[in-house]
């Protein structure tokens, strides 16, 4: 196991101790002041600029911890289908394609720049079959229902009938931007997903749209399918770096480049996913100390790790 993987998976400090220290620091009081959320959606243009600026190999780091954190991927059946929501530069898709030769990865992102970078990374890899098993398409799951080729109307309505969450706020968008060429015209859909990944994606969605976006992920999963979640946790060091004028809502912030970030507590994450019909399998904070050797500073990183299942 690499030192990077070891560090990522360890729990180096107690989250409650960090919370107490942060909440008792008067300089950080502005983080806890009430504020109504802004009503914007995912800004694809801002994310295009972001991925254009960070297109070098230095920014790209494969998430090789995925099979340790989500071992169901390693034990999945042949020809399993996975939907990566918010694929970014391919840092999640590539290790999955590399380690599991029979899995088919569908990957969407609201940024065309991100999809271009991800496609380049996959095609440049040494995994010969990766390009044939990687199916990217441009989509904003926070405002649009997933395309019908993922789940046909009949299957979609059946899934909706079983869930309790409302999909109000989601438009029934019609786009021909999938980039998928392998689906036969005679097939109504590909039958839904065995897995969905939300890896550092949901935090970019405005809070008021998260419930509907998660319900979309629920709707394209097969019964018994799993959703793997990893995102920024409450009091992560990146949250504490935001200035007061960057706060745009409850635990929501906007960076200078226009991209957004939300920081999850376990309670909020639990309410969102259970409210969409999921069963909680795992949910915990991942608390890691990392050292910036150049500045000789200790950084307290907090992520939320979750695993949720669609009922059989």
Topology, pairings included?
Layout: H1 3-9, H2 15-23, H3 44-53, H4 66-69, E1 81-85, H5 93-99, E2 104-109, H6 112-124, H7 130-133, E3 134-138, H8 153-162, E4 193-199, H9 207-220, E5 221-232, H10 237-240, E6 247-249, E7 252-254, E8 260-262, H11 266-275, E9 279-292, E10 297-309
Parallel strand pairs: 1-2, 1-4, 2-3, 4-5
Antiparallel strand pairs: 5-10, 6-7, 7-8, 9-10
Helix pairs in contact: 3-6
The gist of it:
With 312 residues, the protein is of the alpha/beta class. The chain is built from eleven helices and ten strands. It has one domain (3-26, 41-53, 62-309): Vaccinia Virus protein VP39 (Rossmann fold, 3-Layer(aba) Sandwich).
Strand fraction = 15-25%
Radius of gyration: 19 Å
Q: What low-confidence regions span 5 or more consecutive residues with pLDDT below 50?
A: 1-9, 174-182
Strand adjacency order, main sheet: 3-2-1-4-5-10-9
Tell me the count of domains.
Answer: 1
Top CATH class:
Alpha Beta
Mean pLDDT: 83
What structural category arises from helix and sheet content?
alpha/beta
Annotated CATH architecture = 3-Layer(aba) Sandwich
Span between N and C termini?
35 Å
Question: Would you mind describing this structure in some detail?
Answer:
With 312 residues, the chain is an alpha/beta fold. It has one domain: Rossmann fold. Helix content is 29%, strand content 23%. The protein is built from eleven helices and ten strands. The strands form two sheets. The protein has a seven-stranded mixed β-sheet with strand order 3-2-1-4-5-10-9. A three-stranded antiparallel β-sheet has the order 6-7-8, with no helix packed on it. α9 (207-220) links the parallel β4 (193-199) and β5 (221-232). It is globular and about 60 Å long. Residues 1-9 and 174-182 have low confidence and may be disordered.
